[in-house]
Amino acid sequence: MSGFTDLPPADWPFRATSRLLEVDGIRWHFQQFGQGPALLLVHGTGGSVHSWSHGLEALARTFSITAIDLPGHGFTTVPPEVDRRRDVYSLQGMARSCGELLRAIDCTPALVAGHSAGVAVLLRAVLDGRLAPARIVGFNPALVPPPPFYVTLVAPLLRPFFESDVVADGGAWVSRNTRLVRQLIGSSGTELTAADLARYELLCARPQHVHAALTMMSRWDLPGIVRDAVALDIPLELIAGGNDRWVPYRLLERSVARLPRATLRAVAGAGHLLPEERPDEIIASLIAHAGEADGGLDR
Questions:
Q1: pLDDT at 6
Q2: Residue 148 confidence (pLDDT)
Q3: Rounded to whole angstroms, what are the CA distances from 81 to 27, 256, 297?
Q4: Are 134 and 111 in contact (CB under 8 A)?
């Protein structure tokens, strides 16, 4: 256990369950609690463990939960030299780093769930042999690749801009001093409570959080993960908001149709932030597979 103290504020959801651990230079924040088979929860870009908070109390009555802050997000920190050495914010780097954390805390879940980009992290981790669950459950999966011209021409040009400290510092300043975060959340198709919005505003006021979110988006190979996921040999259950404006359902249907082990259903009227907007959907979907998770090791 390292000596750093970057814990969430005292009023952060389930703050008493937070743990800090350094693994190969990454200073992880994660939460563990509950009883039962092991369940891993992975949030999406710009989120943190708080993204699951509305469903955690109910889930903890069935599962032993491990919810992590992805590298650079929330209260997990990545020193710049560690990223330079290990390419932490790439999709492969995220999957590798998550696998290393789970080994360090002896967590081998048979049921894993992700939201948005967290679904891509889990897919990459499974395909790379870093996780071996019985099933992946994904909510609002970020599996709609951008157009090929963006991947090959635009993204490489924008990468230095997205990853600069100046942009991260500026983004954090804007988040602190304007209503930008509320406007962005509003564009997702989800309406959050004032308390939920305040948590995103707090996170986006942290330059390292902004840097991680932008750098992930600049480095990720979504066409590659959709292509590779054709070979997935476990069930992939996907649930998305019918009113998701960030990952439109009709485009998601086309992408998921390529994956032989995947199923997809819509939640009518729901937006992109399904875990916060419709926690009952998350709870019911995961508890339905508690029997499969009995094969996972408790923490």
A1: 81
A2: 55
A3: 13, 37, 34
A4: yes
Q: How far apart are CA 109 and CA 215, in angstroms?
A: 28
**Cβ–Cβ contacts within 10 Å for residue 183, how many?**
9
Indicate the helix (H) or strand (E) that contains 81: helix 80-86
Contact 62, 89 (CB under 8 A): no
What average pLDDT does the chain have? 91
d(CA 155, CA 44): 20
CA distance 266 to 198: 28
CB-CB contact of 91 with 220 (8 Å)? yes
Phi, psi of 224 (to 5 degrees): -65, -40
Determine the average pLDDT of the residues in 62-88.
96
Show the tokens assigned to 55: 């469903």
Phi-psi region of 223 (alpha: psi -120 to 50; beta: other; left: phi over 0): alpha
